[in-house]
Structure formats: C-alpha cells, structure tokens
Write a structure and sequence with these properties.
Elements lengths: L1 H24 L5 E4 L11 E8 L7 H19 L10 E12 L3 H6 L6 E12 L3 E12 L3 H6 L2 H17 L17
Parallel strand pairs: 2-3
Antiparallel strand pairs: 1-5, 3-4, 4-5
Length: 188
Amino acid sequence: MKLSVRRATGAALLLAVSVLTGCASSPPVAKFSHRQVDAVFHAADTADVNVSAASGVTMADYEKTRVIERIKMQIAAKQALNPASAAVSQYEVDVRVTRYEKGNAFARAMLAGLGQIHMDGVVNVYAMPGRTPVEEFSVQKTFAWGGIYGSSTTIEDIEQSFAEGIANALTGQGDKPAGTSSQKVSTR
C-alpha cells in the first residue's frame, strides 16, 4: 500500500512538472496577415535577422542582440528539419517588438496572474536582394504562472519560446504534426 501511494504521488508530481514546464517553454503560434505558399525556409536558405523596439517599448541593445541570436539559433535548428531546395533563397527578417515586459518575480511568486511577463512582436519577411515582401505575422507570448515556478521564470525563458514561435512560422515546423513534411498554405 505504501509503495503504491509513493508511486501515485511521484506520478502526480511528474505530471505537474511536465505541465508547468510546458507553459514557459511552449512556443506561441504566429497569426499571419500576409503569407506566401513558397515561403518555407529550406535547409540551405539564409536569413539576416533584425530586432527593433516599437515606440514606447524599452529594450536595451544587449536584449535585442540576445533575441536576434535566439531567433537565428531556432531558425537554424528548424531549417535542419526541412529538405534542401534546388535554389538557395536569402531572406531578411525584421522583428519589431511591440511589447516587452519583464514582469515581477515576487508578484508572480505570491499569486498567479500578478507580475506577468509579456513579449509581443510583428515580423516582416523579405526576399532578398530585391527586398520583396514575403510574409507578415504577429507573435505574442505571455507568462502568468505563480509560485516557485512563476518566480523562477524570467524574460530570457520567454525570449527563447518567442524565438521558437518565429522559427516555427518561418520554417513551417509549427504548421504540422511531427514527422510530416512542411507545406505552407496561402491565406491571402
């Protein structure tokens, strides 16, 4: 009896940790306002990434640089899952951060929903060298868990999942179940 209670407690704890871990690390889903069918970044394609802060949004240069690097790393990881294309394409990815709030760890520790972390942005993708608009989408990530998990989560954790959401949109990896080929659908 004592062993089965321990197993049940352990399983419940493992389930709770799995659920909680997924929240900050789960990537947001892009909301497209303009999208082309052939806009999937293939394995050998290249992308120059720029991050800027919208008017009224405070973001230090080192934070912008950190977000750029995270987006580049996520794009590279997701591109590796796509097949190579006959022609290599070059893109410019402009991310304008429209909301960047680090929240308050103490407030999150006291009560879920307080001291929330927010990171929102609008992404414009251009085919180079002509700087032809390819797609535009928005990405929003909010974190509001409380307790120890909430107080230990930082804006850097949210930046990572924000970057993954952008990479999923650019590579088509967020559009499909695992193990299927990537195809994007036009929503014009």
